[in-house]
Amino acid sequence: MSISRTFAARLMALLVIVGLAGCGASSAPTTAPDAPATGAKTYSDMVLCYPQLGAESDWRTANTASIKETAATLGIKQLVFSDAQQKQENQISAVRACIQQGVDVIALPPVVEDGWDAVLTEAKNAGIPVIIVDRSVSADKSLYSTHIGSNMVLEGERAAAEFNKMMPNGGAILELSGTTGSGAAVGRAKGLRNKLNSNITIIDSQTGNFTRAEAVPVMQALLKKYTPGTDFQGIFIHNDDMGIGVIEVLKAAGIKPGDLKIVSVDGTRGGFQAMVDGWFQADVECNPLLGPQVFELALKLMNGQPVEPEVITNETVYYPENAAELLPTRKY
Ligand code: GZL
Predict the structure, then answer these.
(1) 184 CA to middle of ligand 1, Å?
(2) Ligand 1 center to residue 240 CA distance, Å?
(3) Where in the sequence of the chain do the CATH 3.40.50.2300 domains occur?
(4) Torsions phi, psi of 46, nearest 5?
């Protein structure tokens, strides 16, 4: 059966178009669906300053990894990263160096709440937007563009709810708090006290500065002062790293998993293992994997787009019942 030349030509043309589309689909680069408007800045233009506060905990290690991995994945122009070893003066110096360099955005995870007004004012005067990451600052909100992090007060309130459930007839607990003056420690302590039943007394609170090493002598001193079971029946620990130090001390003192009601914070692999082993009765989640959201906010700020003043991460509480099942899936 013969077909007209015209039809054949149109059929060939159609096949060629389909063929090209087919070829193009696998090899030709396609612009991202949300390609920025003409002239808008992209991630490849971005120079972002991240003056990390330290490397004190597994949480912090995971936070650093999230920032560095996201920067690499997005292919940003430059990540100006530094480690302040938990010293505010080092963080302030790092921010000043970034202002001097003329970075596009500063994403600051502040070690403590206070003492940031001057350097945030310098950044603002230099026209460099600042994202406060993780812990909060007491500086006026006009001095930075947004804050992304956990609701630390809620974390403390969630811990209180666990003690209220486990100690319905009341009792006494100890508190091992995080870095003095940090938004995380201040918030968790506040939240615990907001919601703890009046028949549960916090008989002592000492800082372990969020580190395993510093928690050990603190817990040893507390065991010299108070008799476990008699003077106190529970411990609230502001992060899993300190909790692992506490477990070392409790073991050395002959205390067994479950003898005390222990609630920790973060939900790291170490915390999950402590739940599997029966030491922790609950672990309040605090998510360090903030990299993708930090860079998304930074790009909006680079393009002069509005951002939410607060971005609070949604979190939960983890329990021993499914800790063994979840442990292999934990990203930090
Ligand atoms: C909380 C974060 C805290 C973690 C600790 O958001 O700042 O600092 O709870 C970390 O593990 O050291």
Answers:
(1) 6
(2) 9
(3) 5-150+288-315, 152-285
(4) -80, 130
Alpha-carbon distances, residue 74 vs 39, 80, 209, 298 (angstroms): 19, 15, 33, 12
**Options 3.90.980.10, 3.40.50.410, 3.20.20.70, 3.40.50.2300; CATH of 152-285:** 3.40.50.2300
CB under 6 Å to ligand 1: residues? Answer: 56-57, 59-60, 134-135, 149-150, 184, 210, 239, 241, 265-266, 286
Alpha-carbon Rg for the chain, nearest whole angstrom, is 26
Cα-to-centroid distance, 22 and ligand 1 (Å): 49
Contacts of range 87-96, beta carbons closer than 8 Å, 24 or more positions apart: 87/111, 88/112, 88/115, 90/51, 91/51, 91/53, 92/116, 92/119, 94/49, 94/51, 95/49, 95/51, 95/119, 95/122, 95/123, 96/122
Check if CATH label 3.40.50.2300 holds for domain 5-150+288-315. yes
Assign 210 to helix, strand or coil.
coil
Tell me which residue has its CA closest to atom 9 in ligand 1: 239
Q: One digit per residue, pLDDT tens: the chain, 332 residues?
A: 344 555 555 555 444 443 333 333 333 333 343 455 678 999 999 999 999 999 999 999 999 999 999 999 999 999 999 999 999 999 999 999 999 999 999 999 999 999 999 999 999 999 999 999 999 999 999 999 999 999 999 999 999 999 999 999 999 999 999 999 999 999 999 999 999 999 999 999 999 999 999 999 999 999 999 999 999 999 999 999 999 999 999 999 999 999 999 999 999 999 999 999 999 999 999 999 999 999 999 999 999 999 999 999 999 999 999 999 999 999 99
Atom of ligand 1 minimally distant from the CA of 268: 11
Q: What global pTM score does this model have?
A: 0.89
User: Which of 210, 240, 241, 314 maximizes ligand 1 atoms within 8 Å of its Cβ, making it the mutation to test the pocket?
Assistant: 210
